[in-house]
Specification:
The chain has about 260 residues and is an alpha/beta fold. It folds into two domains: about 35 residues; about 160 residues, Glutaredoxin, CATH 3.40.30. The protein contains four helices and seven strands. The strands form two sheets. It has a five-stranded mixed beta sheet, covered by helices on one side. A two-stranded antiparallel sheet has the order 1-2. β1 and β2 form a beta hairpin. The protein starts with a helix and ends with a helix.
Length: about 260
């Protein structure tokens, strides 16, 4: 009886051992199927995969944002619309004159609505005109006395000593520039030796194309035109030079507004 029990226990132990091997083998097959591929690569244990996906979350942008620069400088007022005229209290058109020393154009619209310049005095002159030289000398003193009160003078040449138009022929520009310097020297030397020399500090310009032609007959040169910058209307106009009269009209234009 004891031998039977021993034999039974031995058979039971052997059976248990055989079943354990079978379960272990079945478990290995299951793991292999879940981690292998058709190419026979080594199985990958998903639980142990340490691959980190790229972080697509944008990093904090520490750069300064683009800031649009806004020009807060007020635009100059538009020049008064026409109709334009050439006589008293008519609006003067926006003429442009050339500064041969700076190479720039000076326009009447540069002064429109100005707080500093109240009156523009335009003197149209020619090199063959002796009276123009006298007026140029007189205006140096008027300019000195009234510039701070709002007077601007544009002394404009349209022809040289021989009546030739200025800055119309490129081959003659050097001669034109020489003439402008000579004319400036003549004004500063003064028409009357006993009055002494003076200095031209107002703009000495060129009327290229003679735009002042429609304002006067050049046979009676110079022409003097005063324009009020608040509305660009002509407040004084005179053809020919009358000594001592210009200053009176300048004061009237500046202080009687």
């Amino acid at each position: 009886m004891k031998r039977m029990n021993s034999a039974l226990r031995a058979r039971t132990a052997a059976l248990a051992t055989l079943m354990g091997l079978t379960f272990a083998s079945a478990g290995m097959v299951a793991c292999g199927d879940s981690g292998s591929n058709d190419d026979g690569d080594d199985p990958i244990d998903i639980a142990e995969d340490t691959t980190v996906e790229a972080d697509t979350t944008p990093e904090d942008d520490t750069s300064e944002p683009d800031i649009a620069v806004v020009d807060t400088t007020p635009a100059p007022p538009a020049y008064p619309e026409g109709p334009y005229g050439t006589t008293y209290l008519e609006t003067m058109q926006d003429l442009s004159f050339y500064d041969p020393w700076s190479g720039l154009d000076i326009k009447l619209s540069d002064y429109y609505g100005s707080d500093e310049t109240k009156i523009i005095l335009i003197s149209g002159a020619a090199g063959w005109c002796t009276a123009c030289r006298y007026e140029g000398w007189d205006l140096t003193h008027v300019y000195e006395d009234y510039k701070e009160d709002g007077l601007e003078i544009l002394y404009v040449m349209y022809e040289d000593f021989q009546g030739k138009a200025l800055w119309r022929d490129e081959a003659e520009i050097d001669a034109d520039f020489t003439f402008m310097n000579l004319w400036k020297d003549l004004i500063e030397s003064g028409p009357f030796p006993d009055l002494g020399p003076t200095t031209v500090v107002y703009p000495l310009l060129v009327d290229i194309g003679f735009h002042l032609d429609e304002y006067f007959d050049k046979s009676a040169t110079p022409v003097t035109i005063m324009v009020r910058t608040s509305d660009m209307k002509i407040v004084y106009k005179e053809v020919g030079y009358a000594s001592g009269v210009i200053e009176t009209h300048v004061k009237t234009a500046l202080y009687a507004q």
